[in-house]
From TrEMBL:
InterPro entries: F-box_dom, LRR_dom_sf. Pfam families: F-box-like. This is F-box domain-containing protein. Residues 46-97 form the F-box domain.
């Protein structure tokens, strides 16, 4: 039967009222929750409910993903806090075991049925030079064994040869079924731990495994279920093919860290080839790969078998000899052959790889590259033994060659080079600019104040029209036409020849439509008669600086000869020490700015302004002492 209009109207009215009440109720509940939260912020910590107190104490004691023992200090505050701490099983699950069986028993009792994170310390720690520990007592072993099923994380730190027997006494623990065990971290000087068997059947939930100097058999099925694997200095623990098979079967591995491990594998590494049946190993979920080996060849052959996703962090480190001015291995040698590089690390040829740094230090080369879009990075580090790189003539040349060989297919936009030697040749800079024409930002740091950058400005101002048919008078005919930011740091001697070459370079680029928006010259020093002039110690020396022919240019010449090589809102020339204000002012006379504005500062060791600020070239130079 169809309800009358009156009944339909009443039903509609009641429905609307209930909807309004529901809306008010939701708003009131939200407001009440906000007020309750605000109320809690004004309450003394001791008046909070026990469950909130536990959360506060746990957060106070958290160290990374684990809870340390700092919460025990809170038990001394008052009786209530002590009761709450003693009655909270989760606070007693983290146990550091040395020789005190009574403390261990207390923790096991108060943790009730909570899972356990146990760290066992054996022997002497060379880091702290502690008093030698007594052998692990049978009572202590028995107590731990009885709770094997509750152990979630087990860490064993064994120091010194005298701890071998103590570590061996713990090995039967792994014969128990440990269904809660997730993390195993073993560190011991134990070249043979054949009695230690890590099995997926007995330890089905293990997903983090760290072995340092412990050579024990590990079931390949357990390896294939790991998310984190770290192996350091474990010799003859695995066969080469077995280890590669375990990685190939891994579908969850996120972090792989290997230190001096590859050389200890049983068997011989063979590089992948079409004639072999082994297929490339795809680690689809890997986010961090780090390998450090003395033998660079082993690193290259191992990574030749790997195919990584687009977003991992990759760190490869090797060691090689440097004797008689010759390099044994280079950074390129850490990577697979060119044909396999794109499969190993797509980052190397990614169109979104934009930030790269090259460091050339006394005893090492290092390249770091970052893909800001995918959050991935690669770091290649080569340590040289048998001599310092400063003794060799190929420093920057070798670094640039490695850079081009490794990242020549990437459209770099930002590059930083640290450790430039005294007189780098023009052809090295020319090779760099030809290989990375898309550079927009370049930062260079000299190793010594005597670094002569004349060759840099010569190469940067060169033409490439003869190489690619481009018009040498157009923006397409110059090196790195998009370069808009340039930073030169670490001690730059400024001679007359260098000064004029820099201005000519900026002028040539400006005439062809390529402008610097930001120029930073840090720690500039001046040449006088071929020698570097240091900090002025008197007014007379300062006058000599100001009158140096290197910087004496009539103002009208800059309009007749130079077009603007700088543009943008502000350009900076930052001077840490050495150049007095008048010399710095004279230095600016050769630069014509599109905005006629340049700010400069001389900063002392306390980061206080002691120099000049040039506000307007044409009308005003203000000096601050």
């Amino acid at each position: 039967m169809t309800p009358s209009p009156f009944i339909r109207a009443e039903l509609l009215r009641i429905t609307d009222q209930r909807a309004a009440i529901a809306a008010k109720k939701a708003a009131l509940e939200k407001q009440d929750s906000q007020l309750a939260s605000l109320w809690n912020t004004y309450q003394p910590l001791s008046r909070l409910p026990a469950e909130l107190m536990v959360d506060v104490v746990t957060e106070y004691a958290r160290d990374g993903n684990a809870v340390n023992l700092a919460w025990r200090n809170l038990r001394l505050v008052c009786r209530r806090w002590d009761e709450i701490a003693c009655g909270t099983p989760s606070l007693w699950r983290t146990i550091h075991v040395r020789t005190n069986v009574h403390w261990l028993a207390l923790c096991l009792t108060r943790s009730v049925e909570a899972t356990l994170d146990i760290t066992i310390h054996l022997g002497i720690s060379h880091s702290f030079r502690r008093t030698p520990r007594e052998p692990l007592s049978e009572d202590l072993q028995t107590t731990i064994f009885l709770h094997a099923a509750r152990i979630r994380s087990l860490t064993v730190r064994s120091f010194g040869h005298d701890s071998w027997g103590k570590f061996s006494n713990l090995l039967p623990l792994f014969d128990f079924d440990m269904p809660a065990l997730e993390t195993i971290d073993l560190e011991a000087l134990l070249p043979d731990a054949s009695e230690l068997h890590l099995s997926h059947r007995r330890h089905p939930r293990v997903h983090r495994l760290s072995l340092h100097r412990v050579c024990c058999p590990v079931e390949l099925q357990l390896l294939s279920h790991l998310r984190f694997l770290k192996i350091s200095s474990c010799r003859q623990a695995f066969q080469v093919d077995e280890f590669l098979d375990a990685l190939a079967s891994s579908t969850r591995l996120e972090e792989l860290l290997l230190f001096n491990f590859l050389r200890g594998l049983i068997g011989e590494f063979r590089p992948p080839s079409p004639s072999t049946s082994r297929r490339p190993i795809t680690l689809a979920h890997l986010i961090h790969l780090r390998i450090a080996e003395n033998d660079v060849r082993l690193v290259s052959m191992f990574v030749s078998h790997l195919c990584l996703p687009a977003n991992p962090k990759v760190e490869l480190q090797g060691y090689t000899a440097f004797e008689g001015g010759f390099l044994g291995d280079t950074l390129s040698d850490l990577l697979p052959p060119t044909a396999h590089r794109a499969a190993f690390a797509p980052l190397l040829s990614s169109s979104t790889l934009t930030d790269v740094s090259l460091s050339i230090l006394f005893s090492c080369f290092q390249i770091e590259a970052h893909d800001v879009v995918h959050g991935s990075s690669i770091s290649l580090h080569m340590e040289y033994t048998g001599g310092e790189l400063q003794d060799g003539p190929m420093r920057l040349n070798q670094g640039v060659s490695d850079l081009v060989d490794i990242l020549g297919a990437a459209p770099l936009r930002r590059l930083s080079v640290t450790g430039i030697e005294e007189r780098p040749p023009v052809d090295v800079w020319d090779h760099l600019f030809r290989s990375f024409p898309t550079l927009e930002s370049l930062s260079l740091s000299a190793e010594e104040p005597q670094c002569d950058m004349l060759s840099f400005w010569t190469a940067l101002g060169g033409s490439i029209g003869d190489d690619n048919g481009a018009d040498p008078d157009s923006v397409a005919g110059i090196r790195c036409p998009n370069l808009s930011r340039l930073e030169l740091k670490g001690g730059l001697p400024m001679s007359q020849e260098l000064f004029l070459e820099m201005l000519e370079c900026l002028a040539r680029r400006g005439e062809r439509g390529s402008w610097l928006e930001y120029l930073q010259l840090s720690d500039v020093v001046t040449y006088s008669g071929g020698n570097v002039m240091g900090t002025a110690d008197s007014e007379e020396e300062a006058e000599n600086f100001a009158n140096a022919p290197s910087f004496r240019r009539p103002r009208h010449d800059r309009y007749d000869k130079f077009s603007s090589g700088l543009t943008g809102d502000t350009a900076f020339i930052h001077q840490d020490s050495g150049m007095p204000p008048k010399t710095l002012s004279a230095f600016f006379l050769g630069l014509e700015l599109a905005t006629d504005q340049l700010r400069a500062s001389i900063v002392d060791e306390n980061l206080e302004l002691v120099g000049v600020e040039v506000v307007d070239f044409d009308t005003e130079i203000q000096e601050y002492q």
